[in-house]
Structures are given as C-alpha cells and as structure tokens.
User: Fold PAS fold protein from Mucilaginibacter xinganensis.
Amino acid sequence: MPLNQKLTLFTLKYKVIDAEHSIIGYCDAELSYCYANDAHWYWFGKMPDQIVGKMSLQNLLGPFLYGTSREYIDRVLLGRLQEFECLVVLPSGEVKKVRTKYVPDIEDGIVIGFFIYSFDVRRSDILVNQNKLQPLSNENAYDHSSVDYILEAVLRALRASILTGFPGIVKLAKRYFISETKLKTEFKKAYHTTIFIYYRNLQMEVAHDYISRRLANKGQMAMKFNFSNPSNFSACYKRFLREKEQQAEEEVNSLNPQNAINPGQYVKFIEELPTAAAVVNADFVFLGASQLWYSVFKLGTCDIKGKSLFDISPDLKVMYKKVFTECLNKTVTHLEEECLEKVDGSYGWLRWDIKPWYQSKGKVGGLLIFATDISSFKINTGKAKYFNHLNAS
Assistant:
C-alpha cells in the first residue's frame, strides 16, 4: 500500500486531532525520515523538504531527545506500539509536555517502519474539552484585563523563558498592565508560591527529566540554565527533590483503608513519581514502577510488570521476604543502609520505605515500595569498603 494511503488510514484509526499543530511522521526501519508534516517546522525549526530523505530520526531529535526516546524506538521496531510523554524544548526556548505514539508498520510479519504522532498535551486537553464549553455572551466574555487571564499569560511567559532567563517582575507587570504588588499578591494567592520560585521549579522539572534519564549531569544543566555557580543549581535541585518527596509522602499517607482506591490509580500515581518507587500486589508481583526505579535497579528497557519483586535482585528474597510479608499485615517499615546486589551484578546501598496499599476497606492489596540509592553517600564518607571490594571483584 502506498505511504500516503497508510498515513490517511493512520490518522483515521488513531483519531488524530489538531493535525496542523501535531507532529505526524513516518520513519523506515533504518530510522530514515520518509514523511514529515508542516508541524515539524514549529517543533524542530525544520521544513519537511529539509527532513524527508535527508535526515534520520536521531539527527532530527538531537542527542538529548533521542536518548529519551531510544527505548521506545527499540520497542516499536520489535512490533510493539509505544506511547509515552516527555518534555520538548522548542526552537523558541519554550518547553512543552508532549505525548508521543510510535505505531509499527508491519508487512508480512516484518516491521518495515513506524508512524510518529506527537502532540502538545495541554493543547489537546483544551481541544477535547471544547465541546463541553458553553458559548460566551458579550456580558461574560473573557476579559483580557482579568486577573485569571493575566496569571495564565504570566505562566506562558515563564514557560517560554525556561532557557532564556527569568523575565523579571517589573517586565511582566508592565507587559500585562498590572502593578508589581498586585501581580505578586495574586500569583501567590493562586499558586501558593512566588513567581520566581515557580519559575525555578519549571526549570528543575526539565532538569530532573534529563538527569533522571542520564541524558545530562547537574553541571551540564547548570550551564543550560545559566547558573553562574553550579553549587547554586545543586542546592536548588535538592530543594526541588525534597519538596517532591514531601508531596509524594503526603499523597501516600492519604491512601488509607478509609479511602479505598482502584489498583490502577496507585499504579498511575507511582509511575509519575520523581523518586524510585514501585507498587506490587499481595503476591509481590509488580503492577508498576517509576522511571527512576528502573534506573536505580539497572533494569534498562526490561518491562517488570507481571514479574516478581524478588526477580530484580538475588538478595531480596533472602533478606527482605519476611519484612515484606509483615508489611502486608498493615505494618509500615523503614530500612536504613542495606547493601544489595542488582540485576547487572553491581552492588549498591539502599534505604527503603515500605507501606501497604488498600484494595478495599480494611483489606491490603499489596505494597508501595520506595527506594533511595545512597551508594554515593556511602562512598564519599568512606563507609563502603566492602561495597567497593565487591564491585572491583
């Protein structure tokens, strides 16, 4: 079937919306671009005639984004549909959260290429919900001088300035015709933080995405965000992670027997955490895990859903099965400085927090497991001679 017919069927089957602003592409099995729509200009600063037949997917995405997408590319070339979200920096410097689908093109049992469909998550949500909105009359039409409109515009300006530097309160106030005092007051009332801290957290979200996927280190991200002193970036990043962990802790503590939740909600919650976390059922079978869990346990692209918790380390069953079993009896457990062998044979020091989750009122459905890798701390404090000996052997 000709490629243009395949693309037509693809857009119909996957209900492509807002094609003008969404990436639609096609790569062959060698990752050479065979089709690119005009939206590539907005997302990558390249017109279709600059891409098709001239660039590979790796060249177009660049090292950071390609590294983020590599595991999904490998899987789609095995014939498996892939869907994931990531952050993309536009040529303008604006950062957007993008949802991407890689759909394999299979002929006679062989993957000959794959379709690419990427779209702005926030814009898509707005378009999907438009039919639910009532038409505005002249009396209730959106006032561009209203506080809500101004705050939304300020958020857009902050997102667009993530790589170019903080635009400044004075500049923002003048741009949107509001006093500096009122802008700061209304922003804090709406978002419970200052404009600058909100901006820093946007930067740290991007930094965490790159660092957790090992696409950049802290020093590189400090340079990307124009921190004059890398130690300032490290302090800011640590504070961001600490706040994320506290938020996660509060959310976990809210998951109690009186508020029974569908297991799928626990999985969604865990998979989006910025920490190493996993959810297992009462038989210790994985239901889901965060991206950092895969990184800490050196699992690579291995899909652990449906596999036993004790498969990720030969030591777990021996050392912790009794502890995990006790947690199923509604016990919350904290373990300090435990040395563990990982799947790849390396050793690491971990700190554990284990909590039960509830499938129905009073009934434990499984465990929420949080792991913190403290190996670097142990090495730096000179308390890991045994750890170093094992890894050197």
The chain has three domains: 3-126, 144-253, 256-392. DSSP finds 16 helices and ten strands in the chain.
